[in-house]
Specification:
The complex is a heterodimer of chains A (about 270) and B (about 525). Chain A has ten helices and seven strands. The chains are: A alpha/beta (about 270), B alpha+beta (about 525).
């Protein structure tokens, strides 16, 4: 696939005036708009790359292959494909939640192209296991799926039409409110299952890139024990605790998030 | 943090919660406390709104609802389950808005309302279940439909694409199905014949055997009945089909309809006819060949015996006997030669397949023949009547014609009745198919009861006449047949004989000119 195909597939947006590549990848739930309170702070010194995972946001849903995305490797391969097509080098890869793991997997495939990994609220496995606390049981995952079933958040094919047919619509704010976090329920459920049922602990020791792990205060999705586990497993990692509560500090506490990123990148 | 036990606030018919940007509850109404099973609320406990949520809902809240509130400022009609203090669950519909606080930090304050939807959830569940059932049913139907289409396409292509006739009729014999091969072969349209009587597509001579077969089917429902039927083609002509009839019964074993499978046997029957004709020809040729062989051996042996006798006579060395022997030898050689020439003529006729045909004057040619026979007519004064106009022409092979007339008149002379004067009547008539010459005499006649079978055989004589060589009729029959004509004989002992020769009348003027 050439660059234009990839831009369409992953709704890639490149901004900023700098040279240093920084890629922000959203986690499970919504799309690249999750980073909109954070990335503007990097626009002077960085070349900012934003993208939507296939199946999320304004990615091309026709590429959603249930077999390919049955595990996170599928997404990691997309990321590698993009990096190689655009010939990005010395990359700073910022991944939130599930995309922290996707970034980690990609870094094991093309370690020479990635300078730094920043993992925001990551977890390699959500379900508790022998000697491992993920914080979730299978029932929790089921109750998530049930909640997703009960809430399409106004998603409908007519809305999708609007999104798909007006990619360059100027009234971004309105469009955003119409489209934000509205994902195809079938894909959203599949992504939830893949995200929350997976076990990617074995990837962690293979990560050789310097890694920052941002751990939120009282994050029920990626609890402190998980952050510590990640920090132990990844060779060259640094665990930083945030004051921010919850699982999306870039949404709830963008200033602190920016500050923590800048501190690390200094 | 402030908790205002306002009267209205507490009697609202839905839960009301105010939380800060850390999701900590600032205020909560009584309805909400009752809903989640808390007796009272102490702000210093630091309850979080997430404490009301199950783990799955927390993920949804963090990954969807909080971002939505942050970006859009509002969430509406979110269906959730809240955990009650006794670990039971209560389904609610949640709405939320976010506003900036009036304090100096401009912190965000989140307002949520929760509607108890226990009753509604029951309906919803029922709806979901029936929806699911319906979806399953649709899937099953789709699967069945797909299977049915596959099957029906498969069988349809079998029925449509084979080279068998497949028709069905109701119990009255009206068509209910005709496959495309049948329609194509007969040149009919299915829509024209559905509901019409199948007998109308069978030639009337075969109606009875068709109905008999139907009767046999009704009497033996488990058996298949076979019948050959002929059907008229829309283009004219008739095709012969072999059919297999079977009665189809319903679940209660009552006759339902007839299934008839057939195939075209027209070609087979035609080939069979050709084969039969060929067998007949071969049998006849074989019998002629046998006849021929017998005569050859018999006749040559006769000549050999003669030669043997002459040789013995010659050895007596008397002058007069030598002379006699010489004369006899001459005669024998002559007749030997004649025999061989006749035999070779016969073979020639058989081997010729096409003969040159010309148009010529009947009277002229017959006149020539009579002139050649002058010697035999010596001392006789036969009355020869030519019953046709003097300019009558005939179209055939001239050599064969001469040979045929020569032999017939010569026969009349040979087998004349010594008691009265010979009368020969030669007639000519023609129609679209034949040119017919008949030669009638008042001679000895032939006993046809005795000789009709071998009258045209080789070396058959019926009268003990010394001139009879028994070859003439055999030769002319072969010649006539080579011309694709025929010869017939009528005769009565002591009355006379009529030979009638039919030459095919293919001789229109154009053909005649072409052949000239």
């Amino acid at each position: 696939m050439d660059k234009n195909d990839l831009i369409k597939r992953n709704n890639i947006n490149i901004l900023g005036e700098g040279e240093q590549i920084i890629i922000f990848i959203h986690g499970y739930g919504c799309d690249q708009n999750m980073c909109r309170f954070v990335h503007p702070h990097f626009k002077t010194n960085y070349k900012i790359v934003l993208l939507d995972l296939v199946g999320s946001g304004k990615s091309d849903l026709s590429f959603y292959d249930f077999d390919k995305y049955e595990n996170l490797q599928g997404y990691a391969l997309d990321l590698v494909e993009i990096i190689e097509a655009f010939d990005f080098k010395n990359i700073i890869l910022v991944g939130h939640s599930v995309s922290a793991i996707i970034s980690g997997i990609a870094s094991t495939i093309i370690p020479d192209k990635i300078n730094k990994l920043i993992m925001v609220c990551p977890s390699p496995k959500y379900i508790d296991d022998y000697n491992y606390i993920g914080g979730f049981s299978q029932d929790d995952i089921d109750s998530l799926i049930e909640t997703l079933n009960a809430n399409y958040l106004g998603w409908s094919s007519s809305i999708t039409q609007v999104i798909m047919n007006n990619p360059d619509k100027p009234e971004l704010a309105q469009e955003l409110s119409e489209s934000f976090c509205r994902n195809d329920p079938k894909i959203s459920k599949h992504f939830a299952k893949v995200t929350f049922s997976g076990d990617y602990r074995s990837i962690l020791p293979k990560i050789s890139i310097p890694t920052l792990i941002l751990q939120c205060n009282s994050d029920l999705i990626a609890p402190k024990e998980v952050g510590e586990y990640m920090n132990n497993e990844i060779k060259d990692s640094k665990l930083v605790l945030m004051d921010a509560v919850g699982h999306c500090p870039h949404i709830s506490h963008p200033q602190e998030t920016v500050q923590k990123l800048e501190n690390y990148l200094k | 943090m402030n908790f205002v036990p306002h009267k209205l606030f507490n009697i609202l018919p839905f839960g009301y919660v105010e939380a800060n940007h850390h999701d900590q509850i600032i205020s909560i109404n009584k309805f909400m406390l009752d809903l989640i099973g808390l007796e009272n609320f102490k702000p210093e406990l630091g309850l979080s709104i997430k404490d009301f949520f199950t783990k799955g809902v927390i993920v949804f809240f963090e990954t969807h609802l909080k971002p939505l509130l942050k970006i859009n400022g509002i969430i509406e009609e979110i269906s959730l389950e809240l955990s009650r203090s006794n670990n039971s669950k209560v389904p609610v519909l949640m709405n939320g808005v976010v506003v900036e606080s009036n304090d100096e930090n401009s912190n965000l304050i989140y307002y949520y309302t929760f509607f108890d939807m226990t009753q509604r959830k029951l309906y919803e569940k029922e709806l979901l279940i029936s929806n699911q059932k319906q979806e399953n049913l649709i899937n099953q139907l789709n699967d069945l439909n797909k299977k049915y289409l596959e099957d029906s396409n498969y069988y349809r292509s079998m029925v449509e694409n084979n080279s068998f006739f497949i028709v069905k009729t109701d119990l009255e014999g009206k068509y209910t199905f005709l496959n495309s091969f049948f329609c194509k072969r007969l040149g009919v349209k299915q829509e024209d014949w559905l509901g019409k009587y199948s007998l109308d597509l069978i030639i009337s001579e075969d109606h009875q055997s068709c109905m008999d077969t139907v009767q046999r089917c009704l009497e033996n429902p488990s058996e298949t009945q076979w019948v050959n039927l002929r059907k008229p083609l829309s283009t004219g002509g008739i095709i012969a089909n072999q059919w297999e009839f079977k009665l189809i019964v319903d679940e209660d074993n009552n006759p339902k309809e007839f299934l008839c499978l057939g195939h075209d046997i027209t070609d087979i029957l035609n080939k069979q006819k050709v084969l039969e004709a060929q067998v007949e020809t071969i049998t006849e040729q074989n019998s002629r060949l046998n006849n021929f062989t017998n005569i050859v051996t018999h006749n040559l042996r006769n000549h050999l015996a003669n030669l043997n006798g002459i040789y013995e006579l010659n050895s007596s060395s008397s002058e007069s006997e030598n002379k006699l022997a010489q004369s006899m030898l001459y005669q024998t050689i002559h007749s030997f030669d004649h025999t061989i020439r006749n035999l070779s003529d016969t073979i020639e006729i058989k081997s010729k397949t096409t003969l040159p045909l010309t148009i010529f004057s009947l009277q002229e040619e017959i006149g020539k023949v009579i002139a050649t026979l002058k010697l035999q007519l010596n001392n006789l004064d036969p009355e020869i009547n030519l019953n046709f106009s003097s300019d009558q022409k005939i179209f055939t092979n001239i050599s064969y014609f001469e040979s045929i007339i020569f032999n017939l008149i010569s026969n009349s002379i040979k087998y004349r009745n010594p008691r009265h004067n010979l009368v020969i009547n030669i007639k000519f008539i023609q129609d679209n198919f034949h040119q017919v010459i008949s030669v009638q005499d008042n001679g000895l006649g032939i006993d046809l009861n005795q000789h009709s079978k071998n009258i045209f055989g080789m070396y058959k004589t019926f009268h003990g006449n010394p001139d009879a060589k028994g070859l003439g009729l055999f030769i002319i029959k072969n010649q006539i047949e080579a011309l694709r004509g025929k010869i017939e004989v009528e005769s009565a002992l002591g009355v006379g004989t009529i030979f009638t020769v039919y030459f095919p009348n293919e001789g229109n003027e154009l053909t005649a000119i072409k052949n000239k």
